[in-house]
Structures
1.
Amino acid sequence: MSENIENSKKMVERELQFYSKSSRVSYYDIVLDRGEGALLYDVDGNEYIDLLASASATNTGHCHPKVVKAIQEQADMLVHYTPAYIWHTPEVELAEKLAKLAPGDSPKKVAFGNSGSDANDAVIKFARAYTGRPYIISFIGSYHGSTYGSMSLSAISLGMRRKMGPLLPGIYHVPYPNIYQEGIYEMSEEEQVEHFFKPIEEMFKYYVPVKETAAFVLEPIAGDLGIVPAPKLFWKKLHEFCQEHGILFAIDEVNQGLGRTGKMWSIDHYDIEPDIMVVGKSIASGMPLSAIIAKAEIMDSLSAPAHLFTTAGNPICCAASLATLEVIEEEHLAERSEKLGKNARERFEAMKEKYNFIGFIHGAGLNMGVTIIDPETKQKDQMSALKIVTRAFQKGVCVITIAESVIRFQPPLVITEEQLDKALNVLDECMQELLDGKLSDDLISGERGW
Ligand SMILES: Cc1ncc(COP(=O)(O)O)c(C=O)c1O
């Protein structure tokens, strides 16, 4: 239980005077002190089981000894030199490793960045350069980052649009094939695909010339939409359409990559070789590193200084990334995600039997979304979802909501079975408290959540 958070409170109050409100979605007013595996500790000594993994950025867990050792050793050798001018060993090794690790057999090349956002900017640059076409299509409900380019690809919140426009021109959005909606879920897969392909056909018929379209940018499994896997047939059809029309198929693995979904890459669930992919977050266990990895001929379409950053490909970040990739492989974290995810799914399904406010449960592996609804209207119920996660937090489980009322379940992949069980018991208890009318509106103070 996190009843005493006095030290945190003081520090939060101090920081709020100096920190921009643009840069934090408020959930819980605690200050972290340290982390270990799937456990977090705040400055008052409270312990939390982490079901958020720093927004899927610490798949290897907090302070994995191997990653920490790599960081320490590299810090002793060379803290920084920019690959924009001169090579260094970890960058050379990592570029090769990522190029070989990307899905498909075509030769790939890599460029480093500092964040998932700038990697998505790179997609726009390379797709336009390679195809000589201006238009990019992405999906409603997607989050691709917070730079102007990646924000223009995103379409998830007016908070990312208001007062900042105009955004990058030439980017259009179509509905994400989110089958987890009443009336659509019940359709056959073919009908679902037809349903979601219609707006695309209309777009190309009425307002976007297909021959001037450079790329589709997509998450195979949409993270911020609520961890929503798209139907297999849909990506297959879209990929075929792209190939037929010379449009690049570009995927964002920033949130869903690196073993999160039960496979190394989320696109591995779809047997498609993307033309371009971007990685970030867990690629270096949360150290600031991202990469665009694309077919060599696409990456050869631009020359310096089209896409370079002084601190991109920093030696310590690259060393952390090499160690991270080894941990994912050696500890079979993708397989672990799949296995533990099956147990978690059973637990959520059992909760759904008990609680009529649980709607769809989506995703697989240690990567799921549990939608909380109003049982009568069947509409999303943000307040109830916030109450459940806030109460869970009070009981020592760090979990948040996304997509209005979806409980975001993305623990570090190293979480122990015991920790997982304990965290799921807490969620179950909190849902029971909600059902019993024990969670009042006062639980949620001020502006909270997405
Ligand atoms: C799918 C996806 N792409 C890109 C980003 C942006 O990454 P970053 O915050 O590192 O810029 C995020 C971050 O949440 C993401 O979830």
2.
Amino acid sequence: MRGGRVIVVGAGFSGLACALALTDAGAEALVLEARDRVGGRTLSRPLPGGGWLDLGAQWIGPTQDRMYALVAAYGMEIFASPAHGAPTRLLDGRPAGGEPAGLAGLLGTLDELAVGLDPAAPWRAERAAEWDRTTLGGWLDANGPDPVTAGYAGRLLAGGLLAASPDEVSLLQMLFYLRSGGGVGSLLGMAGGAQQDRIVGGPAALARRMAAALPPERLRLRSPVDAIAQDAGGVRVHAGGEVHRGDAVVVALAPALAGRIRYDPPLPALRDGLTQRMPMGAALKVHARYPEPFWRAEGRSGVATTDTGPLTETVDNSLPGLPGGVLTGFSYGAQARALRRLPDAARRAALRDALVALFGPAAARPEDLVEYDWSADPWTRGCFCGSVTPGSWCDYGPSLRAAVGRVHWAGTETATRWSGYLEGAVTAGERAAAEALAALGRAPRFKENLRYVY
Ligand SMILES: Cc1cc2nc3c(=O)[nH]c(=O)nc-3n(C[C@H](O)[C@H](O)[C@H](O)COP(=O)(O)OP(=O)(O)OC[C@H]3O[C@@H](n4cnc5c(N)ncnc54)[C@H](O)[C@@H]3O)c2cc1C
């Protein structure tokens, strides 16, 4: 069909949502995916006795309306994250009854600064230049009541949200992210927050159902896109030795990966510069499987946070109705990179030691430790998402979503709400579909149950 063929690069949630929106609107979408599977940063591993582990994304929470709508539309179910027992906290290496003094005030100040920010244009904030050149770590050191509280907040925020160290991200990037995800409580919370619910079977299963809703010939796996050319007549997308022609292309990848594609004509300098200044985070997510959730018998929730050692936080990831217990730990930024530099046996020993420091000797002998190195995966190269480096938002930010001729940009990093999350991936894909259709002179027309208002 002339005048309505859009090529979508990437079959993560963003590319799939984009292709579905295009198809619903009557356009012809062709999705080119590098891997032999869909789902991108979601990946589940089945467990021998039933159940599964989510090696990538796993949670959804309130206000992530498109994700809940997709769960319902594709006949999936959700269950609540476990919520019983008390959290565990180590401060300065010692058990602590409550949060560090002054933490709530410090986080509240960040929320207040974030509220005034336009998540679609953080560079327009009155103090954008100052916040852009200030690292989150520097700001916390200057504004925190003491070094322990500042260090703890840095690990939770830079680590838990952006999978980075506090000195790797700017205050402006942090404020953008807080604004995009509804504030500290919404982003860090379990019940009532972003970690509230899980999808039965994992989000990767939802991605497979979304893909199955596309006409089969509209999705090509094992098709890594290496070059995109455009001219007045249309686009030519080179993938796996084939050339696909269309009227527009939506690149549904993190900017760091979008920058590895060759463009003809070359991308504008600022857009290419953005792809050089939005590195992926470094998170190590590890599942420790035990015969039973022993921490519950001790009145503990399995939710732990610590300012010491390689792990920053853990959660109880046991599946309801199935035997066995799962503690899932997260390491971020410099600590995650240090773990990755270790040989396998030493890394696993360090992870076990970190779990023992939090949960005692019962944590010493998990049946299994399961991890996946997203940084080593050539089609992801790090997680949870890309973050703009300090000093770069003001100059390069305006290029994040701006189409380059017939090339449109999706991927969770381009979202204004829930950027970095599955929800952001979906809304970004749908926004790019609407944008491509509008550029081709077609009004977007979504199915009622998939309607989204931008
Ligand atoms: C360990 C981990 C935990 C996370 N936890 C959560 C969570 O609990 N909740 C949440 O909401 N989010 C979470 N996230 C983030 C979430 O996974 C992402 O925001 C989301 O999956 C991004 O989707 P996307 O479609 O934008 O990008 P991707 O999922 O990265 O999709 C991009 C796709 O493009 C493909 N690709 C790459 N290069 C090319 C190329 N040249 N040609 C063709 N195809 C290409 C890739 O293979 C991939 O399939 C987590 C991520 C990780 C890794």
